[in-house]
Amino acid sequence: MPIEENEISEKSQGGTEQTKRGLAEKLPEGLLDDFQIICSRVREIEEDKIRIYWLHDLPEDPETNHLKDQASRERFHKLVFCGQWQYERYKNMLNIPYDQHSMVIDTPIETFTMDQVKKNFDRIDLVYTSTPQRGLALLVPVFIELAKQFPNIHLHVFSSYKIYGWDEADKQFEPLYKQLEEHPQATYYGFAPNEKVREVVSKAHIFAYPSIWLECNSRSLIEAMSAGLMCVHPNVGGLVDTSGGLNFQYQGHHDANTHANIFFQTLKHAVEIVAGDDIQNYLRLVKMYADNRFGWPKIAGQWTDLLEQMKVMYPDEKSRLLPQSKPAVFQYKS
Fold first, then answer.
1. Helices 277-294 and 219-226, axial angle in degrees (round to 10)
2. Fewest CB atoms within 10 A around its CB: which of 22, 84, 157, 277?
3. Edge to edge, what strands does the sheet with 230-234 contain?
């Protein structure tokens, strides 16, 4: 397969895997035949192919921080980063050169149509659609307190390590899952197909995301923006770049209790105003931004242009060979 799978990704239905499998479907037939596209974890190098290293993790990850070595970088004809914040972090931490060997192509989504995102405000629906370690432990107690003040709110949670095939990792979060299952104003879905997640998100009003996790960007956040939700999240990691600064973004805090208090006040205000006409008009602007920046038509076009240009630059096996002067030998975890 031109876009590599490995022992971890082949079991996963996470955002990276959805993105790379979606790209393979969106590109013109046969365009990938001359390429080896590796997502984050390098296992084998095919010297007769045009090699693209598509980064979805942070430079701290031992699977990618080998890029600090020039010999490792030279094994690839192009480094593609999934967000500008992530790219800047690699440049600063691993001294990745600022040149044409690297480029940024945003993470794409299937956007929501306007017919799909018509809202009913008889009840205010909040939604969380990310893995539990990213902020669920903050969200649950904040929501429980908020529900005491607002009997017309309901929280929908799609969160489980089963999305990666790591069932055992859910055990530490089972007390949180149980609290959600027992709360009359919450629904816990665990892991569900993306179609079910999108169905619930399209009808929801607020994306409640008190993230404590450094991530390159957030596919869940982008989908929520496209679905016309008011997105409440801190200014952490790649979320600032992803959101374009347009969301209900608040100043985060390293202390969990302080962060929870800030999030509570911000989320409370969001619940109070989300049904207003002015806010809904603004959320349509946010949707337009997300659709145009992250929609598949734009992103697939960028990838098509890149691949066609690289086929011209590296037309045959001889032109694709690794440099002989600086051989690279690296070992990776299996």
1. 130
2. 277
3. 186-188, 153-157, 124-128, 206-208, 230-234, 248-250
The residue whose two tokens read 């005491």 is 148
Domain 114-293 sits in which CATH superfamily? Glycogen Phosphorylase B; (3.40.50.2000)
Half-sphere exposure (Cβ direction) of 48: Cα atoms closer than 13 Å: 1
Q: Do 247 and 231 form a contact (C-beta atoms < 8 A)? A: yes
Report the b/e string of 251-280 with b at 16+ CB within 10 A: ebbeeeeebbebbbebbeebbeebeeeeee
- Alpha carbon 13 to its chain's center: 12
Residue recorded with tokens 């859910």: 170
What residue type is 103 in one-letter code? M
* C-beta of residue 108 within 8 angstroms of C-beta of residue 296: yes
Q: Where are the domains of the chain?
A: 9-108+295-320, 114-293
Q: Do the beta carbons of residue 306 and residue 35 sit within 8 Å? A: no
DSSP state for residue 169 in the 8-state scheme: G
Q: Tens of pLDDT along the chain (334 residues)?
A: 566 566 554 554 566 777 878 898 999 999 999 999 998 889 999 999 999 999 999 999 999 989 999 999 999 999 999 999 999 999 999 999 999 999 999 999 999 999 999 899 999 999 999 999 999 999 999 999 999 999 999 999 999 988 777 778 899 999 999 999 999 999 999 989 889 999 999 999 999 999 999 999 999 999 999 999 999 999 999 999 999 999 999 999 999 999 999 999 999 999 999 999 999 999 999 999 999 999 999 999 999 999 999 999 999 999 999 875 454 445 544 4
- Report the distance separating Cα 223 and Cα 205, nearest Å: 13
Alpha-carbon 242 to chain mean position:
9
Question: According to DSSP H, which parts of the chain are helical?
Answer: 15-26, 70-73, 84-94, 136-149, 174-182, 194-203, 219-226, 239-243, 256-273, 277-294, 296-313
Q: Tabulate helix, strand, coil % of the chain (nearest 5).
A: 50, 15, 40
